[in-house]
Amino acid sequence: MTALSSLWPLFSLTLTTPRLVLRPITDDDIPAAVAAARSGIHEPGKSPFSTPWAEVPAEELGPNMARWHWRCRAESTPESWSLVLGIWHEGLLVGCQDIGAKNFAALKTVSTGSWLKQSVQGLGLGKEMRAAVVLYAFDWLKAEVAESEAAAWNAASLGVSRALGYELNGITRTAWGDKVEDVQKIRLTPATFKRPDWTLQVEGHEPAASFLGVG
User: Fold this and answer.
1) Whole-model pTM above 0.85?
2) Which CATH number fits the domain that encloses residue 80?
């Protein structure tokens, strides 16, 4: 890992909250991420994702997820980047939280998305991991806006956003798998952010930020 992080500095980044460790997914972590996804993320036919990737046959999920992680890395540059963080809870990988940006130097805006396996949903981990990346974005990357979205029916996701201070930012109608859904856009700034009562611990920020052209 030391040698690899010297070539790909994003692997040096680790965010730690009271209950979670967030760090970039490596190739060695992909099988655990696939296993977590295969254990179930949502009810059948009710995908919270615009692309229903978790509903493909089990034999396709692994290759698809590997391709996605490799593509996110390969396409990450200072002009357009996507940082996919694994979520470890009690030593087990239980989901992923991503944070990304386009033209961050000018826009100072990040976007986020995430998933958690069903067995750990309802414990407040979704709020904690989103708070972690928002804290990192605002306090370390000096972002000025954090954006996200969810299907209008996704009360759980929108509830997490509301609890953190996100404000509604319009509704768009878009293709959602083989359906059409109303999608609620949401927006957060440092002024509206409802900060948690814990402090985010960050390791490896400097090499990661330098690689992303931030700072």
Assistant:
1) yes
2) 3.40.630.30
